Amino acid sequence: TNMKKGIKCPSAVRDSRQIRNLAKYTTKDTKLILGVRHPIKFFESFYNYRVKHLHAEHKSTSHIPRAEDLIGDQSHSWNKLYTEVARFEMFMKQLAKVDVSAEELKEMKKLGLKMVPNPYKIFLYNVDQLGDKNEERSSQFRSDLQEFLGLKESIPPLPEHNVNHESFPEYLDVCDDEHKEFRELMMSQGNETARWIRDEFMKSLDVVVGGKDFFLELLETWGSEICQTE
């Protein structure tokens, strides 16, 4: 059969053990599709997902920390959420698609991360490209994905990524004035992440970028204010 099969696993690239197991139990024909997102939007979404989960399980929400309490590494973690989780480059380095310096390896080791050489080709995209209303860009993106996966039939328009219409009092709105310094920290961090993806990761021969022009355009916003301010 020519049917393509796949799994979705948000933590696959964050955990070197999962990358290692993937390399151990799959063939070199396996391909990875890796989605990234504006780090501030990612953090806000992850935070609110955790809040929603507490409500769904009818658990107490009195202990929910402020976003500012989660600045730093996993020692500041709340349910595996902390600001350095949004430093995507730290986890993407584990895929061993580009060279890293001794200093980078040292930093990775402190975070419990390891390089895991593997034969996989990677399709890189930004989740904001899903459901893109610009038909020309959307068509190019789907064409790039079709070619990467070796599909004979074209891919139909894709739905937007998860849209959550629920709301709880504890939800984080990063655009609130009280989070201005938090946003500034995340913008600085996001700018460095974007630089590494653009100048390092994307240059690997194993990495294919879907809708490259729009991807780069979105990447440029990672160091900029995303909230409307007066």
Overview of this structure, please?
The protein has helices spanning 16-25, 39-56, 88-92, 102-110, 135-149, 180-199, 212-219; strands at residues 31-36, 121-126, 207-209. A 3-stranded parallel β-sheet has the order 1-2-3. The chain is globular. The protein starts with 15 loop residues before the first helix and ends in an 11-residue tail after the last helix. The model has no long low-confidence stretch (mean pLDDT 92). With 230 residues, it is mainly alpha-helical.
Q: What is the rounded distance between the termini? A: 58 Å
> Number of DSSP strands?
3
Strand-residue proportion: 5-15%
Shape: globular
> Measured on Cα atoms, how large is the radius of gyration?
18 Å
Helix fraction?
A: 25-40%
| Spatial strand arrangement across the major sheet | 1-2-3
Order of helices and strands: HEHHHEHHEH
